[in-house]
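Morning run. Coffee first, then this:
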Amino acid sequence: MNELLYPLLWTFICVLSRVGPLLVMMPPIRGSSVPMQVRAYLALGLSTSITPLALSNASVMPGSLTEIIIAVALEMMLGMMLGGVVTLLISGLQMGAQ
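And here it is:
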């Protein structure tokens, strides 16, 4: 059972740690008008729906705790960078429209 559960859980954690910061930094959701619980539920829902698609291309779960922490931190930084790029693109479109 663990052989089936660990890859699925690892993939879900990787997807969640990438989608979570991306959603937090996106302009329509970033404002104070959207409560943090809604953002968290949206990240969980998107991660749950993306995980089966990413499972076939997922990496193997690292063996040590430090490697797991580093991998999750890298996924979170990638999500923040993607969110920053989306923010820059939307800000550029807003400036260009003025």
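The chain is about 80% helix and 0% strand. Good start to the day.
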